[in-house]
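Quick start: what a row looks like.
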Amino acid sequence: MNHYGRPGSPPAEFASAFPVNAIPVCPPPSSDIVDPWTPLETMEKTDYDVLIVGTGAGGGSVLWRLAQQWGNNGKRIGLIEAGDYLLPANKFDLPDWPPLSANVDPPNPLHWESFPTFPSDRPHAHDSLRWPFEQLMALGGRSILWGMVTPRMSPVDLADWPVSFTEMNMYYNIAEDVMKVNRTYYKAAEFLLDRLRRDGFPEAHTTPVAINVQPAAPGEYWSVPPRFSTMAMLADAAKRRPYDTAIKAKAVQVYAEKGKAVGVRVMDRSRKPYFLHAKAIVLAASTFETPRILLNSGINGGAVGHYLTSHSRVDALAKIDPRDYPSIPGLFAVYTPRTNDRPYQMQMRGFPPYGREFDILGSGVVESRYENRVALTPLHTDEYGMPKAVACFSYSDADLEVIRRMEQGIRQAAEAMQVTLDRVCMPPLGRIMHDMGTCRIGTHPSISGANPYGQIHGVSGLYVAGSSLIPTSGAVNPFLTIAALSIRTADYIIEQLK
């Protein structure tokens, strides 16, 4: 009953003032929610020009570049992700509220896949190898969790790459533009920076980070959160052109005919198989999952899965003496790059909750060696019938020497900054999550998984992107380098599909 006493009837005095049907009645609001995901049944019926497997730094960068260069030109692009849609952007943009933050740090509902680690050739390997390597299965990959530090790889490390320094510089510029890399978000603790520069670390500077600090133009609204993740790339690509996306879709095998890739077998969570056709296939699943798919497909070349590398780490907790510097610096970040004489970088970072304490994080070069690899265990399969993968990895004597020098360098930096070290330790290898190299680019199949543009040796139309294609580890967070190389691979694919 309404408050006039009769169900649904207007009062008599209103009826004459508003005759029925004088103005069309607005339709009721729709309760339907648009589903942005494409069913695999639909994708199976589509012939794609490019099919991208994985939505992390590599897959997101390839998609973004294709969309930016092609626009809406009628070519068909498909994107599949084994994980679920979990976070809309980088986790650091979530409100500081325990029910949210509890969901983004292990152990948690996020789908982490572990790869047990065994010594590759050193029975006395460091205990850190007991910790497995891990990958995150989610839309956006690890980009939804990363810390946004985006330095370029040192020219020292790029010197032996199959890509010229000039070309890498160009693609670094493109990647930095789309990722909004800057050196102004984190301020420097000037007294620490000055002391480092005066006493043995003249290269020290503020830390480059992928955080958007550009003000919106009049009439413009930034809908993308300021901290970068590949969600921003996926969104930007969608504004430029349509593409199909399937989540919870596991790629298990690549098919090739007469030396040319023709499609990918994919399974949904119920393990129902689908066959997706494409002229070009880009595997950007991860350092571990990409070679796993290739090896499960019988595509091994001479080096697929080999040359697994990462970064060694030494971390320290430093404390500022209040008698030396009475005010608390607050939020700051200082960075010392890898140099000809120093095979490691260091990051100093302080946050207001830390008070006078701050971190010193050392990241060291690790040799690329054939013995370090991802291997399949055919006797053990997962729920999709794929052989499980393990990581075989050991530090070399050269790696251990870098670790020793890195610890020494951290102590020298602390002395230069006139701060006290409360703790110096070495985190487990698998927790560093800078794994690289299992399909690295190169000119010869015996020592590389793909050619200099990311195409798998001997299989036309089959490409890799992401961390697996990086030839050598360097000492920096690999995200920017992954983006630069993957954008370059996308340009090569565009040229091949003309």
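That is the whole record. Residues 397-417 form the longest helix (21 residues). Residues 44-209+224-496 form a domain with the FAD/NAD(P)-binding domain fold (CATH 3.50.50.60).
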